[in-house]
Structures are given as C-alpha cells and as structure tokens.
Amino acid sequence: MNTQQAGLRDSVTRPPVQLVILSAGVSDPSSTRLLADRIAQKSADLLRRSGRDAKIAVIELGATAVDVAQAIVSGFPNERLQQVIQLLAGADAVIVSTPVYKAGISGLLKSFADVLDNDLLIAKPVVLAASAGTARHAMVVDDHMRPLFAFLRALPVPTSVFAAPEDWGSPALSTRITRAATELVGLLASKVTETITDGAWADYKHQFSGNATLAERTASDVDFSTDLMRLAAGGQSGRAQPVQVEG
User: Fold this and answer.
1) Please, which pLDDT band fits residue 203 given cuts at 50, 70 and 90?
2) Where in the sequence is the domain holding 150, given as residue range(s)?
3) Domains in the chain, number
4) 3-class secondary structure, 7
5) 131 close to 173: Cβ distance less than 8 angstroms
6) 240 inside domain
7) pLDDT, tens digit, 9 for 90 and up, residues 111-145
8) What is the CA 222 to chain-centroid distance, rounded?
9) Which of 53, 156, 215, 240 is 20 to 30 A from 234 in CA distance terms?
10) Half-sphere exposure of residue 153, counting CA atoms within 13 Å on the CB side?
C-alpha cells in the first residue's frame, strides 16, 4: 500500500477534525471573524493535504452576550449558552479571534472565558488572533490572550496572528496565518491532547459535573456515606458521640 492509499484509508476510518472558531467580533462584516475564517480555512486545507478531513463550526459570541451576562450573575449558563459551551468542549482545536478595544481584548471574550469550566480546554491546541484599528495593539494577543489560555491549560500555538488595517493586503499576514495553521496541524498530528489527557487527566482539578468531555461526573459519583456528607444532609455522622451522664 502506497502513502496516498494509506492516507485515503485513514481519512475514511478517522472522523473529521473538529475545528471551532470562537469569534468575539460584533460588527457585520467583522474583520475579527474574517481573520478567524482565514486561519480555519488554511488549517483545514493543510489537514486535507495530510489525509484528514476537517469540519469547521463557528461560535459568534456577539449572539450570546445577554446569555453570558446572565450566567455571570446567576452562576449558571442557560440552555442556549450550555449548547455553545458543549460545542467548544467537543472541539479538537480552537481558533480564537477578538477585536482589541482600548489596548485590551474584548470584554465579551473575557466574560465568556469567566463562565467556562477551568478544565474545558485542557491540552486543546488553540490559535490566538486579534484585529485592531492600529498596529499599536499588536502585542495584545501575547500580553492578554496567551496568559488567559495558559490559565485554562490550553495549548496555544507559538505563532499569534494580529491584523491592523494595513496588514490585510500584506503577504506577511498570509505568512503568519500559514505558520500558525501549520503549527496547529502539527500539534493535532502529534496527538498531544490524547497523550496529556490519557496520561494525566486525573491529576488536574476538575469542575464537578462540568462540561469538559472527560469530566462526566454526576451526583451518582458522590459518596453520601461519609461523615461530612451526612452532616451536610442534616443527619448524624458515623462517629461515636459523647454520652451525657446526669449526676
């Protein structure tokens, strides 16, 4: 069997790579979304060249702004936001793109990150991208986004992608997009996500009954027979209680 035949066989037997775009752009048309689309398309093209199909899904955070605000206040995502979070949880790789406002990332993106389980993106490859009205904001991706996704324990690729108005017609932007997409595909090919989650998943702190695909814990996993859980339920603990003796 030659290499081409092997690639065709693998593309049939393996499910498509799930690429999820997370766009915080709110204008229409959105340069933030356009940047993410270019990165996702280049990643899909490179995946297909390697014998893997790709499926691209898009999360437009602008449509979830009210749901995100409600979740921050209530502490619980509603059903619509829960579906968005589950789509992100099922991604093999994520392309995150944000506009830059006043030298910082979109508040909507940060608020959305605040309602995510901390273990939702563990070891997932991520491309970080931003668009802005001036090149003065070029370091926002690495100064603001990279620490955020490091906290979430994702795997941001080394190359970040930034686009100011003058960059859109520049070959340098296409070069950076290709480089970031190549790094993303390389991480996927290495199966680093499976290596980390299979080998060390239990060593991470997880959200109880959370959205992470490997954190399928429910109330049935709780041991209600412990002293602490009995006391919490208003019952007696299993420990012997002191006896009061009247004189």
Assistant:
1) confident
2) 3-203
3) 1
4) helix
5) no
6) no
7) 999 999 999 999 999 999 999 999 999 999 999 99
8) 27
9) 215
10) 19
Q: Is residue 167 part of a domain?
A: yes
* Residue 163 to residue 173: CA distance in whole angstroms: 7
CA distances from 193 to 4, 91, 96, 122 (A): 26, 11, 18, 8
Average pLDDT over the chain reads 85
Measure the CA–CA gap between 150 and 161, rounded to whole angstroms: 17
Q: Is pLDDT at 9 greater than 80 in this prediction? A: no
Distance of CA 244 to the CA centre of its chain: 57
Intra-chain end-to-end CA distance of the chain, in Å: 93
Q: Which of 173, 127, 180, 164 is nearest to 149 (CA)?
A: 127
Lowest mean pLDDT: which of 18-27, 146-155, 216-225? 216-225
Indicate which CATH number applies to the domain containing 58: 3.40.50.360
218 is a domain residue? no
Contacts of 50 by beta carbon, 8 Å cutoff, 6+ apart: 7, 185, 189
155 φ/ψ angles, rounded to the nearest 5 degrees: -120, 80
The amino acid sitting at 190 is: S
CA atoms within 13 A on the CB side of 187: 22
Sign for the pseudo-dihedral over CA of 25, 29, 32, 33: positive
